[in-house]
Prior knowledge:
With 124 residues, the chain is mostly helical.
Amino acid sequence: MQTLTIVFGLVLVGVGIGGYVETGSTHPTALIPCWIGVVLVACGALAIAPARRMLGMHIAVTVGLLGFLGTVKGAIDTFRLAHGTVFEHPIAVEEKGVTCLLCLLFVGFCVRSFIAARRTRLTV
């Protein structure tokens, strides 16, 4: 799971850098997915050590959940954008939608992994 955390973190870093470049490198808020990604990469690196795995993954899923909750409006706006609503900064709307989706997928994978780990501990 720690490898998946690092991969999701790197993808979010790419989304943030891509959004920043697409906005003409003038809007630093486009880098917000980068910071979420950097924290996920750090948590994934922390979780590589077996003694710190639970701590790293619980911090990572919390960051992912906060990232999802913080961008839900962006996901709704992405659907509105797809149906013809005009926004002042459509790239920002798309970036928030992608960030929301990635964070939701990450949280889903984490919850699934936590449930599987719990079942494994109960059967042993």
